[in-house]
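A protein record in our archive is deliberately plain, so that people and models can read it alike. The record that follows is passed on verbatim for readers who wish to inspect the format.
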Amino acid sequence: MYLFCRVGWNEHKQTTRIEPEKNTSLDGLYKSKSIYCTQCEAQGFRKITYFIDRPDVTAKYQTTIHADETTCPVLLSNGNLIKSGKEANGRHFAVWKDPFSKPCYLFALVAGDLQHIEQSYQTQSRRDVTLRIYVEPHNIKKCDWAMQSLKQAFEWDEKRFGLEYDLDLFNIVAVDDFNAGAMENKSLNIFNSKYILADNDTATDTDYHNIQGVVAHEYLYVIIVSFLSNAFIQFIIIIFFYLLEGLTVYRDQEFSSDYGPRSVQRIDDVIRLQGTQFKEDGGPMAHPVRPQSYIEINNFYTTTVYEKGAEVVRMIETIIGRDKFTSGLQLYLQRHDGQACTVEQFIYAMEDASGVNLRPMFSWYSQSGTPEVTVKTEFDANNKCFTLHLQQVDLFFFFFLNLFDL
C-alpha cells in the first residue's frame, strides 16, 4: 500500500505492507472468505497505515486499487470513480476520488466477486445520484427492499430537514461475514447481509422494518458527518459519539415514524429504552451521555449514548417545536460546516433559532442514572381544571443527606 501525503508544498510518500488475509482482528483492512473489506471505526485505519487516527484530522482521499480481475472483479472505495482499466497478467485497477475532507474512520475499501442492482435518485436540486447495492452473487435477488428504503431516506431527509446528498454515487455493500452490523463510510456503506437482504420467502415483517431503519440510520449519519468534523481527543471524543449518534438515532426514529404508524414506532422505541437503557443506567455500568473521560473507546457503543442521547435530542424538539428544531439543525450545520464542534454549540443554535433558553438541557448530558420524578395532581371540580405537578428528585442531594445522618 502506498500513501501520499501533501502538507503545504511538501509531499511525503509512505509504503506500508500489510497482510489482510492474516488480520484476524477484523479491524482495518481484512479478508473475509473471498472478499476484502474495511472496518475503520473507531481506530481501525491505523492498522492499514501510519496516520493520525483521530476524527478531528480530516483529509481528502484518492484511492487507487490494483487486483486480480478474476478473483476481485469489483473494486470500490469512497467518492466517485474517476478512472479504471486493465493491466498486464490479468489484473485491473480502479481510481476513486472523494472531493470532500473526512476523518479516516470513514475510509472504506471493498474488493471481491460481487454483483449489484442499480437505480437513480433525483435530488431536490435536480441532480441525478446513482444508487447501487453490491452483494454476493447468491443474494442478488434480495436487495429490492433495501434499495427502496435508501431512496426513502434520501427523500425524507430532503423534505424533513432540507439536507441533500453531495456526491454523484452512493454505494452499499452487503456481505455475509461483515464483522459489524453496518458502517456509515462516506458514499460506501458496508452492511452485514442481515440488514440488507429480504424477500417474502425468508424475511419477517420485523426484518423488513429493521432493514428500513438501519439503511436510513447509516445514510442519515453520513449526511450529518458530511458537514461536521469531530475531535477524538480525551474529552472531545465524547462529542463524536453522544452528539452525532444520539442525533442520528433520533432522526432515524423520526424517519421510521413517518413511514409507519408513529404511535407503534414510539412504543417500540420506549420498550427498547426501558428494556436495555434503564437497566444500564441502574447498574454498575451507568454513565452519563457525555462522560468526562474514557479508557477504551469501543466501550462507548452503549444504549445510553445511542438511545438516551436520542431522547435528549427529542426533548429539545418537544420544547421548541418541530419547525424551530429543523431551523436550529440547519443553523447548526451552516455555522459549523467542517468544524470540530460540541453539544454546547448545538444547544446555542437551537436557542438562537427558537428564542428559548435551553441551558438546563446540559444537565441531561452530564448526569447518569434514570431520573426519579414525584407526581402530584390537583383537580378543581368547579373550573374543571386538572393540574399536574412534576418534580425531579435530586439523587445526589438525598445521598448527601444520608451520609450526613450517618
User: Anything to note?
Assistant: The chain has nine helices and 16 strands. Residues 2-112 form a domain with the Immunoglobulin-like fold (CATH 2.60.40.1730). Residues 130 and 169 are 5 Å apart (CA to CA).
